[in-house]
Amino acid sequence: MIFGAVLAGGIGSRMGNVEKPKQYLNIAGKPIIIHTLEKFYVNDKFEKIIVLCPNQWVNHTENLIKKYIGENDKIVVISGGSTRNETIMNAIAYIEEHYTIDDDSVIVTHDSVRPFVTHRIIEENIKYAQEYGACDTVVPATDTIVKSMDNEIISEIPDRSKMYQGQTPQSFKIKKLKSLYEGLSEEEKTILTDAAKIFVIKGEKVHLVEGEVSNTKITYPYDLRVAETLISEK
């Protein structure tokens, strides 16, 4: 079985003084999160699409889905956790409570504020997660990457040809992801930035999926203007 997990836990602090989290801001007449969910909803491979958001926004999210997508039993909204990975574990707990999964069952995790994810990217995430157990969507780094250990002086300039910028989806075999996460020490959990790093820390392979430059994350006010332009061009 294949499940989608759309992560909508952010509060949008870098978006500036806005009255709601950025995933609920409108672009082209619809909330960003709805644009994202539509990409998953039309894919018939998903058994269930789980939206995870702050508890106080659950009812609002459910109402938006009813308004823009309609009544359906394919999407469910639940509360997220205090961190990204705890949020994913909440999704897995929901799956385990309602479904009988096997070792090949997959979860496709995606940022709610990446509304331009393509059908190809989602399909390749499903394929490579099934084949390799874990995959991460990336694009080659186009700028030189500079590393500084003290945030003042350059420590290293890595070979750009080996550098990539991470996007989402990130997709995993569910039982493997849960097992590895539960095997982490508290210290290891504090250095996590995303779920793929769980596999890397434990020495497990994570396959690369080719992303798209347009699969951008809406973080700043400028990104909203770019998103409006991209949608109008389509």
UniProtKB/TrEMBL annotation:
InterPro entries on file: IspD/TarI, IspD/TarI_cytidylyltransf_bact, ISPD_synthase_CS, Nucleotide-diphossugar_trans, TarI
Keywords of this entry: Cell wall biogenesis/degradation, Nucleotidyltransferase, Teichoic acid biosynthesis, Transferase
EC number: 2.7.7.40
Site residues by UniProt (Transition state stabilizer): R14, K22
Site feature (Positions ribitol 5-phosphate for the nucleophilic attack) residues: R160, K217
PROSITE patterns listed in its UniProt record: ISPD
GO molecular function, one term: D-ribitol-5-phosphate cytidylyltransferase activity
Residues the record lists as binding CTP: L7, A8, G9, G10, G81, S82, T83, R84, N85, E86, T87, S112
Family to which this protein belongs: Belongs to the IspD/TarI cytidylyltransferase family. TarI subfamily.
Protein name (database record): Ribitol-5-phosphate cytidylyltransferase
Organism: Eubacterium ventriosum
